[in-house]
Amino acid sequence: MSKPIQLPSDETFVLNVGPQHPATHGVLRIKMRMDGEYVSEAETVIGYIHRMHEKMGELKTYQQFLMNLSRLDYLGALGYCHGHVLVVEKAGGIQVPERAEYIRVITVELNRIASHLFGVGSYIMDLGGFSPLMYMLQDREYILDMLEAVTGARLTYCYYRFGGLYNDIDDTFIARARAFIPRCRESLKKYHKLVTENIIFRKRLEGNAYLSQEICRKYGATSAVARGSGINYDVRKNEPYSVYPEFDFDVPVFTEGDSMARYKVKMAEIEQSLRIIEQGLDKLPGGPIMAEKAPKNIKLPVGDYYQAVEAAKGSFGIRLVSDGSKNPYRLKLRSPSYSNMSLFDEACRGLMIMDAMAFFGSLDLVVPEIDR
Amino acid sequence: MIRTNILNSLRALFPEADTVVETPPPPTPEEESGEKKKAGKAAKPAPRVNGMLERDYTVHGYHIDAQVSPEQLLNAVTILDQQQFFLETITGVDWIDDQQLEAVYDFSHYGFEPCRVVIRVRIPRDNPKLPTISGIYQGANWHERETFEFFGIVFEGHPHLVPLLLPEDADYHPLLKDFKA
Known about the structure:
The complex is a heterodimer of chains A (372) and B (181). By secondary structure, chain A is α+β, with helices and mostly antiparallel strands. Helices cover 47% and strands 13% of the residues of chain A.
């Protein structure tokens, strides 16, 4: 009889996740040093789909850059377009008609729901539940059809203009949006029954990957990552922009700091977005959708300008430096997923590999937005 | 409240300099009459001396604008850290006409009183070096790597200063104004 094989107890090995990996939703690589099933170190490698939007921003005029914004986060693109038009309008002193601003908010919130549905659905699929994604895609399709009819695109929108909108919404859009609200509320009940109360799902996520408020602050985390850790921060409330002060909505905050809390924040945000859309449709003012004096050639006064908006993935910021010419001198895009992703390396240490991947999904990342 | 606190704390960095409250310039006759300005190249913003400005939030989107020297940078960031600010982003601007690079640090606050603080540092373009703040804000790690690869600003003391978004062997800095692809 042979002796049992003795393995050295301090042995670690390197595990390579990605760049082409179904759980990374895009092209992203994580180098992990594993101690058995536990992650002892991780290093995220990004930049596989880097396109240098910031240089394009310097080479293009303001109007030409409009379409680039929807190529960052292709799931919730309208929030990014909104930030861009707001910063240029603020710097150039362009007045936007109220109706246009209301339509912007309605469409942004519809897009936010679509983004959350897809984010949550694919997250559940990562965890092994396939059917919820299919139900959620059904609702998302409904939104995309609605937006396609008015914006002309399904994902890569170029709908907002400096001073207004490209196209007015019609009665069909309003009727479909009104019909969508009760439909989505019914679906949410179904999702909660199917997923949130599912014992396998809960056991998997409750207590998984606790994030303290301190680590969120040090890495600049926003969105569901911060709000799942009890940080009540939403740019729409903390730094109101557009017509958001006229809407009555809540910011869902959960204090557990685990992956379940981050999931719950997103689900609760869908309900709040529905409330905003409902009020927006009720209050929708008439009038023009484009400012009369919207300039054709935009030249902004010398100086630098910052605008933050609450995009679907968190606080998106644009820093614009103008030298008075027709192109921006510098255009910096602060993408929320970038900051949310950067805390992964530190926070996943000591987790089991499956827990680390469950944590990774809860950050709700879109890789083209990280790489820009 | 937080804005007053941070103003007072940052003021300690500039013993002589007084804080300037920005006043919007009076409208020019062309603007008042609604006429278009004559096309022509506007002047680039002039470099200003180190000091603090209180900006008009409704125009610029931030409240406090502090330009510090590289030696003061860590002190300024420590003050912001003590006041529970979070790091929005770090970026650079290439002022090629002045032969200077500018590093811009954006900070914001989770509280309900909006307070955005911008810290800027101007450094010579031929020897761009700054101390890293990744010891204070761990999230600065990636932002500094990005600023390093795009502008060539070397952050001394950074634990892992290699390109982040560009290929690992990239030796060019694409956001410099004299970069030719």
